[in-house]
Design brief:
Rossmann fold, globular, 27% helix, 2 domains, alpha/beta
């Protein structure tokens, strides 16, 4: 780069933010990012060198898949030395999954990867996309004493910046679509962008490692009162399952019926890894706190602490992809790898 300005790469994967409304038909269609500055002229006033790249075929985030995470990671890896930071434009529905996944893929990250999107297309007058885009770029470019202010994977939406693997989408109707229920906000954008430096990951001096192996042979089991014995036993016995993410009540509690505990134990004896996270948006799993979770602890279920479902699921897929022994996977599940859980 022949400029002293921070260089930011904007990556469009798809999603609402990149849609333009045809003035004649009213239909929404992806717009050409070569004309981005025509749609958002404020970008000219940012003190950055901005480049952009778009997926050859933009996708709706409901079609997100690990192979697309790999494609996205490879774009960043290829351009990592060239740019000071990255902004990923992504559909909001699965943004928390993708941000969590990228956090595990990039070990020893030392530059910002900021996900953002919008609830309304950027071509709509009332869009939230312009502010989200502009501020995400500012955050990706922010430096202090020559170093990035936010050297981690994060999500910026509606004036707040969240750690990517602590984020969940909780609202489909309002602009403030995301929350980080178990971890502090990394920054708030008001008149100034106020950074919570104590909550932000420190950059790594080690060499970047990009992990690209995934394994999605996982079952998610959501518990509810009256859950069917027949269906549950059938699900847990499905051939090929390598891990089960079980969403329990409260602080990690589950029914204590013998058939249920036996079904879990039989799965564990087959080598299946079981991870316990709570259905509650806030709080953490504490296995053994009540009798209704002590049996889970006894049979070898891993406690997921305060991980979001999105972080827990992508962490499982990431660790299974490394082809590690089951006991090693269990150890790593309960360790804090990328700031995704709080060690009590």
């Amino acid at each position: 780069m022949s400029t002293l300005k921070p260089s930011i790469l904007l990556i469009y994967t798809g999603g609402t933010i990149g849609m333009m409304q045809d003035p004649k038909t009213g239909a929404l269609k992806p717009f050409n990012f070569k004309h981005l500055t025509k749609q958002v002229p404020e970008l000219h006033r940012l003190d950055v060198q901005l480049d952009s790249v778009s997926f050859s075929k933009p996708i709706d985030s409901s079609n997100m898949h690990p192979r697309i995470w790999i494609e996205l990671a490879e774009i960043i890896e290829k351009n990592y030395a060239k740019y000071a930071g990255f902004v990923v434009l992504h559909g909001s529905d699965t943004m928390a999954y993708s941000a969590s996944a990228l956090s595990f893929m990039f070990e020893n990250l030392a530059k910002p990867i900021i996900f953002t999107g919008s609830q309304l297309p950027i071509g709509i007058i009332r869009t939230d996309g312009k502010e989200n885009l502009i501020t995400a770029i500012e955050i990706a470019a922010a430096r202090y004493q020559g170093k990035p202010v936010v050297p981690e994977v994060a999500v910026y939406f509606e004036y707040e910046l969240y750690r990517g693997n602590r984020t969940l989408k909780y609202n489909s109707a309002h602009f403030d679509a995301f929350k980080s229920p178990n971890y502090a906000v990394l920054a708030e954008a008001g008149v100034k962008i106020e950074y919570n430096t104590a909550a932000i990951q420190k950059d790594s001096a080690k060499k970047l490692i990009v992990h690209k192996q995934w394994d999605n042979d996982i079952l998610v089991l959501f518990l509810f009162p009256g859950i069917s014995k027949k269906i549950t036993q059938h699900m847990l016995a499905t051939p090929g399952i390598k891990a089960i993410l079980i969403q329990t009540f409260g602080s990690g509690n589950a029914l204590t019926d013998k058939w249920f505990i036996d079904a879990l134990q039989q799965a564990i004896q087959r080598g299946v890894i079981i991870l316990n996270i709570t259905q509650c948006l806030e709080g953490r799993v504490i296995q053994g706190k009540y009798e209704t979770s002590s049996m889970l602890e006894k049979i070898g279920v891993c406690g997921g602490a305060d991980m979001t479902m999105e972080a827990a699921l992508t962490k499982l897929m990431f660790l299974l992809g490394k082809k590690l022994p089951a006991e090693k996977v269990k150890q790593l599940l309960m360790q804090n790898l990328r700031g995704e859980l709080t060690i009590s």
